[in-house]
Amino acid sequence: MNPTIDLFMQNAPRVGAHAIFAENREQLASTLLNILADEESVYFPCISDLEKTLAAGCPRRVNDYFGATATVEEATAAIAETGTIVSTSAKGRPVQATLLPAHHVALVSRTNVFQTVDDFFASCMDPLPANITLITGPSRTADIELTLTVGVHGPKRVDIIVF
Amino acid sequence: MSTLRDRMDFRQNAADAVKDASLRRTMRTATDVFATMRTRGLNSLPIDTWRDEASAIRQTILDDLLAYLDQFTAAATKAGAVVHRARDAESARETIFHILKDRGVRKIVKSKSMVTEEIELNPYLEHRGMSVVETDLGEYIVQLAGEPPSHILAPALHMNRKQVGRLFAEKLGVEYSEDPEVLTRIARDVLRKEFLAADAGISGANLAVAETGSLVIFTNEGNGRMVTTLPKLHVAVFTIEKLIPSLRELPTFIRLLPRSATGQPLSSYMSVVTGTRKAEETCGAQELHIVLLDNGRTGILAGEYREILKCIRCSACINVCPVYRVIGGHAYGSTYPGPMGIVLTNLLEGIDKSHPLLDASTLCGACVDVCPVRVPLTDLIRRLRERRVTEGLTPMAERAEMAAFGLVAGSPALFDFAQRVSRLSWPLLEMLSGPGTLERLPRPVKDTFRRRMS
């Protein structure tokens, strides 16, 4: 594994996300089905070819993210320095789909893992999409006696598969 | 629970807060946690280099603010936003109200914004028949309680879990619980409905990018993402000094802001919002209005306290302040508490209406040690204290005492005489003032330093 991906795999769990490395497409598909085993309804944006292929093999698939229990999205990028994944509105992606369901599964190609936040922003092209969101772990709050609670407005569980 | 306080009564407010054992316990735990998280988060990182960079970037903006504002306005407009300028709180409130009213808005969701507290936006909109729901959990709690926030980042910091449990039971009609997990779940369900029903979202911005016209919003809960993506209409309001030149400078603030605030390497969510939804997009507001608020900033920029405008509202200075840690935020009676709040309140609201807050600092410098953009907070407070004296705002008795001391200290003969008088009259003073009063003062001696040296 190259050092950038290695760093990402170390940092993602530190911020509360589960990161798994898939050697190939078969492993990616089987890992995904395992992760989704307990989900009642799964939303795929079906924008990339990968999303379309995986959606076809997924039982309990729904077309609306508002009521879904999980969203599976191919993330635009990942950032090793902070264990972050990136959702953007480019190509018609609904960024809120990675926010509303309680479980977010992000798929990241190993070629899209950046070392630092500087590297990522240097790659952003003009014109910018309406929304670029850096996601670092699950939704969290500590507003009651600074007690950490996850899943306040967004996902309680974030899984990342690097392939 | 505390209510709205008058900052001119700061001494009394502070004395009351010190007597509130429950508040002191809550504050001690909370500020200790914050300080520990920050120390841990910054461990073995080149923090001082980052602070130099961040300070220089903010200074660049202040040195050429008008040009950067024009650049931001042009870029945001090109990206589809409508940019409004508001001179003061009243014009900001009116501008926002008319944007909402013209589009028939009834229900508004808000993500946490201190500037909307500064301009008292919620009561203004509510009096005109609109429903405004705060969606940050802490802000939602204080809104339900009818209180102002007591901390710029954790608005309900002063409340313990039992108080929150009782509040939810009373206001939301749910079963009493003091488990933060259960209470958070209740708020999630209530607020999810509000998000989906809202006609408009109102947010602030942590930073704004001049080159691209983007807004940058950090949240941990995800409410900022909801507010800026779910409703068709998004109104963002922030003050003019929040700019950074370009996205190239953003990483410095990504590294410093969350770490200074909570010790996190990055908040759970950071969104860069650039204009409205484009033709092929399915996300983002269809209409974005940006209200750039001055409210006294241009005046501050022109004066000797301009460095306070570098502040990025991380709250590190508040969390380490020994005064804040004891009395909490409400005793200040101002929108912004702690060291940055002392300075900003005196500049925004006038020293004549805020100067008692200048005493809410020991000048220990802990705030200066942690500030990510190197605002010289203690220098600014000391200079404001000097101004308080030159403007004659200190009490008459204090001024008379200082004048008398100046006279005596300026004359060796008088000083010598005064030392003798104080030594001889000490037993009498002790008797008159009662036990304990003079204990903290050094006892006058016969063989004084001056006499030994002469």
Summary keywords:
heterodimer; A: 163 residues; Rossmann fold; six-stranded parallel beta sheet; 12 strands; globular; B: 454 residues; alpha/beta; 3 domains
**Lateral arrangement of strands in the main beta sheet of chain B:** 1-10-7-4-2-3
Number of domains of chain B: 3
Low-confidence stretches of chain B: none
By CATH, the superfamily of the largest domain in chain B comes out as: NagB/RpiA/CoA transferase-like
What CATH architecture label of chain A applies? 3-Layer(aba) Sandwich
Number of strands of chain B: 10
The chain pair with the largest interface is: A-B, 50 and 68 residues
The biggest sheet of chain B, with number of strands, parallel, antiparallel or mixed sense and barrel status, is: 6 strands, parallel
Question: What is the CATH fold-level name of the largest domain in chain B?
Answer: Rossmann fold
Structural class of chain B: alpha/beta
Instruction: Name the overall outline of chain B.
Output: globular
Low-confidence stretches of chain A: none
Identify the CATH class of the largest domain in chain B: Alpha Beta
Rg measurement of chain A, Å: 15 Å
Overall 3D form of chain A: globular
Averaged pLDDT of chain A, please?
95
Query: Using DSSP, what is the number of strands of chain A?
Result: 12
| CATH structural class of chain A | Alpha Beta
Q: How helix-rich are the residues of chain A, as a percent range?
A: 10-25%
Give the mean pLDDT of chain B: 94
What's the total helix number of chain B? 21
